[in-house]
């Protein structure tokens, strides 16, 4: 058991744990950290590889992605931010513009939070979302088809490029994740279980397997560079075969690549790759 799973087990005292967010009385509560030296480097900002506005915007998107995967629409956000002493008012305006852009794009209010001074930029965001029909990770049924949206692999490649000291395209999904909200809100009525792909397809499949007590039979081999690419924020989901055509039609409507890659079977699935946040 890695440190992340071990720690969650130590603090867990609620039935609401175990999904992209906690669903309580019609609302989904989700929280994500976005920290310097973990999710981005100061050097990338100094070299203009990524802007403070883009960092703030992405820190919101990775949290909104959790809400979308649970079929919830963001309503409110709380921001906790640790700000380096060296930051100017212009730097703060740039950060704020990223947060506000996300709020405009996804129609929610920023209602509070906390600010402290720190040696590096650290951001923690809580999103409160609303849904009448939440989708959980534990709904995969034997015989379901497993699907994910979009293409996987580019975020790992772009991260490696940045770590090598080279610039990536501003359109990179690593800088600006592509969230599939319109498609998924419409497709949700045909979906049995879902989560976003944040730790990589293989690791997130393991989480889905554990939640649903199910195994997977892959239709073809998935390449390592596809299966271990994290921070993709595409949607991983399962559906009954009878609903597959309806979902495929919706994917065509929204011009989204749909990958149908496995079938749920009795058993379990464990990734052979380690968690990228906590390496044993």
Summarize the structure.
Pathway: Cofactor biosynthesis; thiamine diphosphate biosynthesis; thiamine diphosphate from thiamine phosphate: step 1/1. With 280 residues, the chain is an alpha+beta fold.
What structural keywords apply?
280 residues; 5-stranded antiparallel β-sheet; alpha+beta; 25% strand; 60s Ribosomal Protein L30, Chain: A; Phosphoribosyl-aminoimidazole Synthetase, Chain A, domain 2; single chain; 2 domains; 34% helix; globular
What features would you describe in this structure?
- InterPro entries: PurM-like_C_sf (IPR036676), PurM-like_N (IPR016188), PurM-like_N_sf (IPR036921), ThiL-like (IPR006283).
- Pathway: Cofactor biosynthesis; thiamine diphosphate biosynthesis; thiamine diphosphate from thiamine phosphate: step 1/1.
- It catalyses: thiamine phosphate + ATP = thiamine diphosphate + ADP.
- By secondary structure, the protein is of the alpha+beta class.
- The protein folds into two domains: about 20-130, 60s Ribosomal Protein L30, Chain: A; about 145-265, Phosphoribosyl-aminoimidazole Synthetase, Chain A, domain 2 (Alpha-Beta Complex), CATH 3.90.650.
- Helices cover about 35% and strands about 25% of the residues.
- The chain has nine helices and ten strands.
- Strand 1 and strand 2 (about 25-35) form a beta hairpin.
- Helix 3 (about 50-70) packs parallel to helix 4 (about 90-105).
- The chain is globular, with a radius of gyration of 19 Å.
- It starts with a helix and ends in a 15-residue tail after the last strand.
- The model has no long low-confidence stretch (mean pLDDT about 95).
